[in-house]
Every structure is written in structure tokens, then in C-alpha cells.
Design brief:
The complex is a heterodimer of chains A (118) and B (430).
Chain A: H1 9-14, H2 17-22, E1 26-30, E2 36-39, H3 41-47, H4 51-54, H5 59-63, H6 73-78, E3 82-92, E4 95-105, E5 112-117
Chain B: H1 4-18, E1 22-26, E2 32-35, H2 37-47, H3 55-58, H4 66-72, E3 78-87, E4 97-106, E5 109-116, H5 118-135, E6 141-150, E7 155-158, H6 162-166, H7 170-173, H8 193-203, E8 205-213, E9 219-230, E10 238-248, H9 253-263, H10 273-290, E11 294-301, H11 304-311, H12 313-330, E12 336-339, E13 344-350, H13 354-369, E14 373-375, E15 378-380, E16 384-389, H14 398-414, E17 420-422
Parallel strand pairs in B: 16-17
Antiparallel strand pairs in B: 1-2, 1-5, 3-4, 4-5, 6-7, 6-10, 8-9, 9-10, 11-13, 11-16, 12-13, 14-15
Helix pairs in contact in B: 11-12, 12-13
The chains are: A alpha+beta (118), B alpha+beta (430).
Chain lengths: 118, 430
């Protein structure tokens, strides 16, 4: 199974629903205009939000406001390609939690991905 | 299928995730229990650390007196502060001013809200100035002079009373720019006339209060209001400006109290962070316009945590207070001595060169280290480290200057503490 550090963006796009849900880390795929298309079961469980309530809604503007800043959302907007891992803090179910984020964006893939590892 | 309870839980979580105000639950020692995303978004850039676990630590650089506020609150529960303003100072991704409300639930449980009120504060300040001006229009005034300026800012009419304030005859002033009568006291940081006209054009008026040099070379407290004048029906273009100069002998006590509240650190009575940055920005603007130099000294008490840990917070507080007293005694009235963070202070020296800054830092270093600080019947040895900087080019931003001062301060610390280092030079000064 690909890990948080090794999984590639084409692999993420190619996974079927079960494979995507089975990833041991949170994974969110969203469009260039911030709309969530993919939201895996791991992330749903950790954030306490059912998939239905997240998919189709703006990600940084509505669901993940704590990443709607220059450290995360702005980088997706500014940088043509991204594959970086950063340390971050999320308030999952209002508990400040240390996480690692992996920001993935390629100019020839329309979906961008955010991976979240606790 | 979601059960009702799960659905409600989801709705609650979404409500809290999306709440546009920061919410934090914390313990008496500042440990954060719960926080919503906005709270973290506000706190993380301020704390400078990758993780926030303690509210007091996260805010120590800009609201070091938060802990004192909580300590001073004796009731078992109730509102500790409402809309308490925390001046953060701008920076990448940071708010400038936060409003913080804290409610004590029990001895061990507090709830705080945090909101970004940067824009509101700027507006309020201008409203407050207007209010002060109009409310005190007839209070304690010695003398009023009124001038009219044309659209280009040149004087086209003055009242005879101008002679008393400026010692310049009205007839000699016609046709001159406003700068001709502008004699701000050399040591004060007045905004320039140009700045006043630009602001007046934007907002309709500009008010400034400060020391001016009297015609007879005495200092006097002058309030200067610049308003934009339009033609009668108010629809046509701008015709010029009206300038009112008021000499005031007695400053209202309320104004002084308000000023103290807004500009001083709660615990030590030193200037606060907001005041320091405001004065420094003003000096920087003067430097850019008139090339009048200034210098900044960053100062940090050595091993302060050790004092707090071994002698208790009360000892730490006493040291901060006594240190403020000693430092202020070494400085000129026009210098600004301010508490920038927990044990971190800043000295702003208008008109000072880098060499002077080093001399003053050295003097302050000695008055801190040479005599132990009395607390609880014993003497605590306290030392501090210093980093000095002066602007070199007009393009330098204040944030860069502060970073250079901090870098020098870091070298002073690294070089063994209790010493003064200079920005950009590789050796400690003393």
C-alpha cells in the first residue's frame, strides 16, 4: 500500500473508491475553484464530518477554514506544481492536533490533493 | 444511516468549524483544551511556533500581561475581560489587532473568544480623535488661529492671532506653503504637513496634537486640524483647506488617562507594543522624508524564565517593574521605552545614531546588572542582552529593522549574555 510520503498524484486519481477510503491517512481531492470532489473515509472519521456534507462544497472556504491561509490554501493558488510536506495544527473536533500535511498539485492534473496524517 | 445524535453532532461540528470568531477553552495555566479553526488561524502566525498548546505562551510576544489579568480576577466565575485589545503588529498572515473576551467558568476552566478587529480599530481611532476635538473645542484653549490654504496648499488668508502662536506676521505668510509655519518641536514625532493634507483629502479632515515650538521659542501643546473646504453647495470640487491651530494649556485628564490606557503596558507602565510600533513607524516616515536618523535597541532579560521558575511569577513581575523604572530613568523624555513581549523590551531613540544607541544600551546594561533587584528580602542578580540597529536606506521596512535588532540581540545572547551587539557587525560592542 502506498504511504503518506510515497503515494503519487496520478495514483490518487486512479484509485477506486474502496482503495481511496482504505488509505490510512486523510485524503481530499478538490478542483482549482476549491470544490471537493473526493473525500476519503479516513478523513471523514477524523474530522467528524460525513462525506456527503463535504463533497460538492468549497473546501478551504467552508470546511477547512483553518487552512485557508498563506501556508496552505494560498500555496495551492500561487504555485504551479506542489509536492511538499509541512507540519501543521488542525482543530479536529475542536481538539488542536498536530498533523503532517502533504500538498500535491501538478499542472497536467486538474484535481489537487491534500493529504493529512495524524 | 446516521442516528439523530450523530446528525446533531455533525451539525454542531460544522457550526463550530465555520464559526467566524475564534473560540478557545483553556485551563488556568493557559493549556488549550479546545479551539476552533479560526482561533488557530489567528494564533499560529502570532505564536511563531508550529503548534499551539498554551494560550499564554502563544500570545506572550504581544499580550504578556494576559496572565496578570487572569491572576488579578478574584471571583470564582464571571467575565475577566471583554473586548480586551491585543496589539499584534502586522506581519505575514497576521491580524494587527485582536479583541479578546475571556469568561471564567471555574478556577480551572476559561473560555475565550478572539476576533480580528484591525480595520475597526483604525476607524475608531479617527472617530475618537474627532470626538476629542469637537468635545473640547472650547475647553482650556489659550489661543486659536485660523488659516485658509488654496488647493495647492499655499496660505491665502490668516487670522491676526497667528502672530502669537508663530511669531510670524500674517502679511508675510500669504503665498507660503503651510510648512512655513510648521515648527514642530525637534524632539516630537509629528506627522508631516504633506501627510496631513493627504489624509484630509481622503477623509475630509486630519487632526494632530503635539508639542510645537512657540514663536518665543517656548514649547506649547498644539492641536492642528486640517479640513478640506468645498464650495458652498458641496457638490463642486475642492477649493482648498482650512487649518485651525489651537494652543492648549491644560490637557483634559480623561484624554491623558485614555492615552495611558492605550499606550502603556498593564504591568510595568512601560509603553506597550502598539505604542512602540506606532512611534517607530512615525520615525521611519520622518527618516524617509527628512533623513532624520533614529535608532532602535532590542533588549531581552537574560534567563528570565529561571527567575520565574525559582522565585515565582511575583518575583518575575517585580523584576519587570523595577527594570522598567531603571531603564526609563536612563532615557530622555522623547525616547520610547516599551515592553514588546514577556521579557523583551524595545527602546526607540529619535534622532539617535547607531553609536549613540550603543552608548545608551551600554548605560542601560550597567544600571540593570550592577545593582541586584530587591525582592522578598533578597537581591536577585539580573542581566540583559541588547541588539542595536539604525536604518541605513529609506527603503528598509520596520519589520526588517526589528529583525536586524533581534539578530544582533541573538548574537549578544550567544556571545555570553549581559552585552550589547550591533546589527550587521560580527562582534559584540562591549
Amino acid at each position: 500500500m502506498p504511504t503518506f510520503e510515497t503515494v503519487t498524484l496520478p495514483e490518487l486519481v486512479a484509485f477506486d473508491a474502496d482503495q481511496f477510503d482504505a488509505l490510512p491517512f486523510g485524503a481530499v481531492g478538490f478542483t482549482s475553484d476549491d470544490i471537493v470532489e473526493l473525500y476519503n473515509a479516513t478523513e471523514s472519521r477524523l474530522a467528524g464530518l460525513p462525506r456527503d456534507s463535504v463533497v460538492g462544497a468549497p473546501y478551504f472556504a467552508v470546511t477547512a477554514q483553518c487552512m485557508n491561509n498563506f501556508m496552505v490554501a494560498q500555496r495551492f493558488a500561487d504555485e504551479p506544481e506542489l509536492d511538499v510536506i509541512i507540519d501543521y495544527v488542525l482543530t479536529l473536533r475542536m481538539r488542536p492536533t498536530r498533523v503532517r500535511l502533504r500538498l500535491l498539485k501538478k499542472s497536467d492534473v486538474s484535481l489537487r490533493f491534500l493529504l493529512i496524517e495524524r | 444511516m446516521l442516528t439523530d445524535l450523530e446528525a446533531e453532532n455533525t451539525a454542531l461540528l460544522q457550526f463550530l468549524y465555520a464559526c467566524p470568531t475564534g473560540l478557545i477553552e483553556f485551563a488556568a495555566d493557559g493549556t488549550v483544551g479546545m479551539a476552533n479553526p479560526i482561533a488557530m488561524q489567528l494564533l499560529l502566525p502570532i505564536s511563531g511556533a508550529p503548534f499551539v498548546t498554551n494560550l499564554f505562551e502563544a500570545l506572550s510576544s504581544c499580550a504578556p500581561d494576559l496572565r496578570n489579568l487572569l491572576d488579578a480576577f478574584e471571583p470564582g466565575h464571571g467575565t475577566v475581560c471583554e473586548g480586551h485589545r491585543i496589539f499584534v503588529g502586522g506581519g505575514k498572515g497576521r491580524a494587527t489587532v485582536l479583541a479578546c473576551t475571556i469568561v471564567k467558568m471555574s478556577a480551572e476552566r476559561y473560555i475565550a473568544t478572539l476576533g480580528d478587529i484591525s480595520k475597526q480599530v483604525v476607524q475608531e481611532r479617527r472617530l475618537k480623535e474627532a470626538e476629542t476635538w469637537f468635545a473640547s473645542l472650547l475647553d482650556g484653549i489659550d489661543d486659536v488661529a485660523v488659516m485658509s490654504l488654496d488647493e495647492a496648499g499655499r496660505i491665502d488668508a490668516v487670522t491676526p492671532s497667528i502672530l502669537r502662536q508663530t511669531a510670524l506676521a500674517p502679511e508675510n505668510l500669504i503665498g507660503l506653503p503651510l510648512e512655513a509655519i510648521e515648527r514642530p518641536d525637534a524632539v516630537s514625532s509629528a506627522p508631516s504637513v504633506g501627510e496631513a493634507l493627504v489624509t484630509a483629502q481622503r477623509d475630509g479632515w486630519h487632526l494632530y496634537e503635539g508639542w510645537h515650538v512657540h514663536g518665543t521659542c517656548e514649547r506649547y501643546w498644539c492641536q492642528r486640524l486640517v479640513t478640506v473646504r468645498h464650495d458652498q453647495d458641496g457638490e463642486g470640487g475642492q477649493l482648498g483647506y482650512t487649518v485651525v491651530l489651537r494652543a492648549v494649556t491644560r490637557q483634559g485628564r480623561d484624554a491623558t488617562e485614555l492615552r495611558n490606557l492605550l499606550t502603556r503596558d498593564h504591568l510595568t507602565g512601560a509603553g506597550n507594543r502598539a505604542h512602540f510600533f506606532e512611534m517607530a513607524e512615525r520615525e521611519l516616515a520622518r527618516f524617509r522624508r527628512y533623513a532624520t536618523g533614529f535608532a532602535i535597541v532590542a533588549m531581552d532579560i537574560d534567563h528570565f524564565k529561571r527567575i520565574n521558575d525559582t522565585e515565582g511569577h511575583a518575583a518575575g513581575d517585580a523584576v519587570l517593574q523595577e527594570l522598567t523604572r531603571r531603564c526609563k530613568a536612563e532615557l530622555r523624555p522623547q525616547d520610547t521605552f516599551a515592553r514588546l513581549g514577556g521579557e523583551e523590551f524595545g527602546i526607540l531613540l529619535p534622532g539617535g545614531s547607531l553609536d549613540e544607541a550603543v552608548r545608551i544600551a551600554e548605560r542601560v546594561r550597567r544600571v540593570v546588572s550592577e545593582v541586584p533587584f530587591a525582592f522578598g528580602g533578597k537581591g536577585l542578580s539580573v542581566t540583559a542582552s541588547f541588539g542595536c540597529v539604525a536604518p541605513e536606506t529609506s527603503g528598509q521596512a520596520l519589520a526588517n529593522l526589528m529583525a536586524s535588532a533581534d539578530e544582533a540581540l541573538y548574537r549578544a545572547k550567544h556571545g555570553g549574555r549581559d552585552q550589547v551587539a550591533i546589527a550587521g557587525r560580527n562582534r559584540a560592542a562591549a
